[in-house]
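Good morning C.,

I know you're traveling, so I'll keep this short. The sequence:
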Amino acid sequence: MIRAYVLWALIGMIGYSFTTLFVKLAVRTGHISSFMVLTIATVMVAASSIGIVAVRGELNAIHGQIDQTAVLWAGATGIALTVAVSSLFRALSLGPATIVVPIYGMFITGGAALAVLFLHEPMTWKKALGLAASVVGICLVST
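The tokens, ready to paste straight into the viewer:
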């Protein structure tokens, strides 16, 4: 039986795979900028997210009970995601996806390393070897 978080991660991977394809297709004619594509995509993500939160009843639940620390971390997430996605879309408009996507994909390795350093998640030799292999693989794929 596949774990729910693995299924969601696979769906996210598929979504991001198509995202880079669609960005390249959108900007290749030169009639639309990568930032316009990002604007359209961001509006769609924001509307979807608000809809999901509303359907789940979370908008009513937070009234008067907002954890300020969580909101600050959410704001930091927004800043980091803005830098990440804006940079990805700009890089895709300038260079080949076969180089941009693997380099950008190193965020997976970076995120895993940050989880070990700051969230104190366990690091095994197997995980360390896998992270090192992913870096080597990305270097081979993107050159």
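Safe travels,
E.
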